[in-house]
Amino acid sequence: MTKNKIFGFWTGAYICTLIPGLVLSAIYVSLEEPVYYWDFVAYFNTFRHQGALLIDGPFQWLSQLATSIATDDYGSAILAPLMPIYVVFGGSRYAFVAGIVAVYLVPTVLLIARMSYLEATSETASPRAWLAVWIAAFLYTPFWAPTLRGMPDIAGCLAITVATYFLWKSKFLTSEPVISGICVGVCLWLAFMLRRWYAYAVIGIAVSAAFFCLLQIARDRSYPSYGKAALGGLCAIFVIAATSLNFQLPLIAKILGTSYGDLYSGYRTTFLIQLGEMGSRLSYVNWLLIMVGLYISVVRRKGFSLLCAFASVLTFLIFIRTQDPERHHSLPMFLWLFPAYAQAIVAIVSMPALKSRWSAAAIACAAGFAFFGTFFPVGRQLLSPVGFVFAEEATLPLHLDNLPEYRRLIADLLGKMKAEDRFSVFASGAVLSDSLLFGLDPKLTPHVGWICQVDSRDRFRPEALKSRYVVVADRPVIHLQPGAQICVTLPNQNIVEGTGIGAAYKRVETYQLSGGLTGYLYEQVRPVGKAEVDALYSEFQKRYPNWTAPEW
């Protein structure tokens, strides 16, 4: 291809991918209710704040961006490429999601699809194989699940994909080791800089590439390549270390001084549950094609698919030592499984016994059914008789039953509280939490009395017992495994039953919330006593002996 043809190909592919992506995003966002909370709203709020700051003072925005890169766990650098979208289209939810799709998701889809296709294709491949791979990549549900929920973490996948390309094309840094090593180092650092948890993926691909490099050199008996690979690896390591220490030294120091295994132990379950969670994010049809693709890769010695699969599994095994992978955490794991998926697609569409037109259509239908059933309620309902075609874990538009009851609860709080009053919510889940309530009405934010939500990360915050109003529920509302959030469940139980600390509160109002949950608003009628606080901590200490009761 000439340069003009290459440019035309990528421009056409981008536009043809972007337009349906924007349409699907618009449909999804239009079906949502504005009930965003936690990670679903964190970057959305930052997007609007950063956009407003950029318009008011560009130099102040740049200064804040540099500070965020250096110190923040949730750095705002990932949003910097989205700022033109804010300036032109504003800070709506659709503008935010569409920006992630346009800037990060579509380029990632095109790069991994093209790389996977070129590595899987052969002289006998059908011309329709590329179309089938492109459709499958575009509708690959793991890419969309965090994106539609407002999490821009797929940005790291773009950097990881480019790093994987340079590793593979340079034959694991043995060809042009200095330039290749620098390119790989820059891409891997960018992934980490955009979202720090990509450090697990960086380790996964680095170890996998080193392993496959050694196998390749031993197989080819090209022993001088050891030196070239070592030189390339040192260049990559130097770039990562230099950029991290230069731009992120405070954050690096914080990371090195933190035991994330202990901090996030409440987010960690058993290996079988973790496998089940990963398995539930793809349809059975998708998993079958991935398994077929891996088999074909072994038989035909397709090293690219095997390298990526190895990196995927290794990243998963490293990550679960800290916590269970959520939708956004599993992005690089599923990214590296796509080449095996594409390998099976190319093989099926290119089979002489099948008409490529019909086999490509079947692949497109399978991908479409998976997308439709995973993200849209009507699709999940219509396809329920053939549930194996979509992911078990649904990512449906956010919705709350009885939304007017939540509005009434918020109105009661705002009507009763004075400027100095605080309220606390002893619930931590999708149907009730402080984040959900002040997400529905930001006027609540100055009045929030923050609670502990995860035992291992937060510990109990006794200041919440000084809030004038508390919101509790008739059953514990948690989002982690039982026993990981007793700092929520024990106070909730005491207040509902009127025992221990609950004796200091009286019930004011009752609300019928989502999912059949009954919520209660309580007012503190007297200060919680020291004996009651000590009794609460004695219950905590049965599970966490190092939790000491505060001075009261």
Automatic annotation (TrEMBL):
Transmembrane stretches, start-end: 7-31, 94-117, 129-145, 151-168, 175-192, 198-217, 229-251, 271-296, 303-321, 333-351, 358-378
Lineage top rank: taxon: Bacteria
Organism: Mesorhizobium opportunistum (strain LMG 24607 / HAMBI 3007 / WSM2075)
This protein's name: Glycosyltransferase RgtA/B/C/D-like domain-containing protein
Keyword tags: Membrane, Transmembrane, Transmembrane helix
